[in-house]
Write a structure and sequence with these properties.
Number of domains: 2
Number of strands: 10
Order of helices and strands: HHHHHHEEEEEHEEEEEH
Helix content: 40-55%
Shape: elongated
Length: 256
């Protein structure tokens, strides 16, 4: 992970956080001034809204990596950013003041619905960007000769640079725009796409068994059935879920 990429990622996070905060404060001011909220009530309302948008947005993106259905993520996000601020105001205001506040609830719900739509469009745009990988990644050949597959992965950590032999990896797990590289020694976070790693690493050694997991086949101890799905048990005892298509791919790689 290069330093310019790190700076770009931090810049995007800072800009996004700033836009969310300003939008939440502006929304709180416009709706709060109608019912004569004090400045600190408007500020508190705005901060709660910003926290809900940020927290629920990160949560749903995290759950997307674990296979949560999109409609469930969207319901959680929309219900959360609409209901949590209203609940906070209900608990704070006395009954008479809340009765006055009730008249702007439809307006708040309408604006929150627009925010939800913006979130959904932004999320779909992000998925499309991941599907259409950058040109740099597309330049990597999909079928590299076996001698050209990397034998190590370099990760920048807080203490310096870590060189991980690919043969030591147990599995790779998606985490938003990052991946976790997991070995028996530990795990390291790297800004990388699963698709790029899938194309770069040896397909005879690393198999994508799930949208969120790439496993080192040499580290597989056994495969067990758990309910209606299959679980891979690794040599360190860790279990990793496997999708139906991933199971077929793994069977081909293992030759059974």
């Amino acid at each position: 992970m290069s330093l310019p990429v790190e700076k770009s990622g931090k810049y995007k996070i800072t800009v996004t956080a700033g836009v969310v905060l300003l939008t939440a404060l502006l929304f709180a001011y416009l709706t709060g001034s109608i019912v004569y909220f004090t400045w600190y009530e408007i500020l508190a309302d705005g901060l709660i809204i910003a926290a809900c948008i940020t927290g629920l947005g990160l949560f749903t993106c995290k759950m997307d990596a674990y296979g949560m259905p999109s409609y469930v993520q969207n319901m959680i996000f929309c219900a959360g950013i609409t209901g949590i601020p209203l609940l906070a105001i209900y608990l704070y205001l006395d009954p008479e003041a809340f009765h006055v506040f009730v008249r702007i609830i439809p307006l708040r719900i309408f604006i929150f619905a627009l925010i939800c739509l913006i979130f959904l469009f932004a999320k779909k745009a992000g998925i499309a960007d991941k599907t259409n990988e950058p040109q740099l990644e597309k330049s990597v050949p999909k079928s590299l000769p076996s001698t050209e597959y990397p034998d190590k992965i370099v990760v920048r950590s807080r203490t310096g640079i870590k060189v991980i032999p690919v043969g030591d990896l147990l599995y790779i797990q998606a985490d938003g725009d990052y991946v976790w590289l997991v070995s028996e020694e530990g795990k390291w976070l790297k800004e990388e796409t699963m698709k790029h790693l899938q194309e770069t690493l040896s397909p005879s050694q690393f198999v994508r068994i799930h949208r969120s997991f790439i496993v080192n086949v040499s580290k597989i101890s056994r495969i067990e059935r758990y309910g209606q799905q299959q679980l891979i048990i690794l040599t360190n005892g860790k279990s990793v879920k496997i999708s139906a298509s991933g199971y077929r791919t793994l069977k081909e790689a293992l030759g059974f």
